[in-house]
Specification:
Shape: globular
Order of helices and strands: HEHEEHH
Structural class: alpha/beta
Radius of gyration: 18 Å
Strand content: 5-15%
Length: 148
């Protein structure tokens, strides 16, 4: 992979040459830098989805949403919490929404209502697998016309 910033196994910032890092907070992470613009974009996207659900409901149409979460485990549960919060928000707004959770050890819903016996268990599809293997199998099942 010869792209700028990926010349070795540790990506570097293309602007300053420093170590690049994902925008995630880890335990005891003194170097964390919050990116408020990222949160604003997320909130704006959630708001836009909720507005679209409302618009379609007013027209008598249904909104169907599939959210794909891959590899979010139990050590840092922020992604899992965020996925289930969005699932709940969009469901309550009137969408037919489903969270597809791919995880080799923790594919089930965390909140009581999304667990296998929960009131909204049908809104979570649990896939007990690793991310790459699951994506490869899904890709192999796709019709050739959709892969191009």
């Amino acid at each position: 992979m010869g792209a700028a910033g990926f010349s070795d196994n540790h990506p570097r910032c293309r602007a300053c040459g420093g170590c690049a890092r994902p925008a995630i907070l880890m335990f005891g992470d003194g170097g964390w830098q919050d990116v408020t613009s990222q949160d604003r974009r997320w909130q704006a996207w959630c708001g836009a989805v909720a507005a679209e659900i409302a618009r379609r409901r007013a027209e008598g149409s249904e909104t169907r949403i599939a959210m794909l979460e891959i590899g979010a485990g139990g050590n840092v549960t922020t992604v899992r919490f965020t996925s289930e919060a969005a699932l709940s928000k969009f469901r309550k707004a009137g969408a037919d929404v489903c969270l597809v959770r791919v995880n080799p050890t923790m594919p089930l819903g965390d909140r009581e209502e999304f667990q296998p016996d929960g009131a909204y268990a049908c809104n979570v599809i649990s896939i007990l697998d690793t991310g790459l293997a699951c994506l490869q199998r899904l890709d192999a099942m796709m019709p050739a016309a959709l892969r191009d």
